[in-house]
Amino acid sequence: xxxxxxxxxxxxxxxxxxxxxxxxxxxxxxxxxxxxxxxxxxxxxxxxxxxxxxxxxxxxxxxxxxxxxxxxxxxxxxxxxxxxxxxxxxxxxxxxxxxxxxxxxxxxxxxx
Amino acid sequence: xxxxxxxxxxxxxxxxxxxxxxxxxxxxxxxxxxxxxxxxxxxxxxxxxxxxxxxxxxxxxxxxxxxxxxxxxxxxxxxxxxxxxxxxxxxxxxxxxxxxxxxxxxxxxxxxxxxxxxxx
Lengths: 112, 120
Description:
The complex is a heterodimer of chains A (about 110) and B (about 120). In chain A, about 0% of the residues lie in helices and about 55% in strands. Chain A is mainly beta and about 110 residues long. In chain A, a hairpin with a 7-residue loop joins β9 (about 85-95) and β10 (about 100). Chain B contains no helices and 11 strands. In chain B, the strands form 2 sheets. In chain B, strands 2, 4, 5, 6, 9, 10 and 11 form a 7-stranded mixed sheet that branches.
């Protein structure tokens, strides 16, 4: 089945630092979504990308839909302690099923 | 309330119990989903409903029984569960369930806070 490779799997950073994470797929995707999940909560949609090359910002978050349509990245600038959580990429592949495919997540730890 | 809500937030049950999880969406969406999230595993899609009709059953054991009485409500009925069924159960909704090759804004899923289920 479809798989998304999300990296890195975890990151430990100092408050104020920037962090970058990415997802790649072996097939073309029509949609890239980035979610954040806090412990014991459901994933919250951060950014949605629907066009190749699209660059979208949401506050300190910036995400891009790769021009090849096989990858996406998410950047967080000037991290703060509340950025701690698990970040998931997800997407719909072109010509694939209706299922939303998820990455395995990246656990972010921010040291004050 | 707004968004997607789930009750209860926490549930502990024995293997012989029968319980139900409830999900309600206030977004006017037509598609609803049940996911299972176990520790250190990707989200697993269980069921998809579109306009109250089940359109996806992802090889889920019969001890999980979904019900969608209308487009705003989704239930997951549980009976004779096993300890390995302990997990976070997430409900999601989207405007449409997606069509092959699409995946636009109408297919974007919004999640509820989940029910943490522990089976003893």
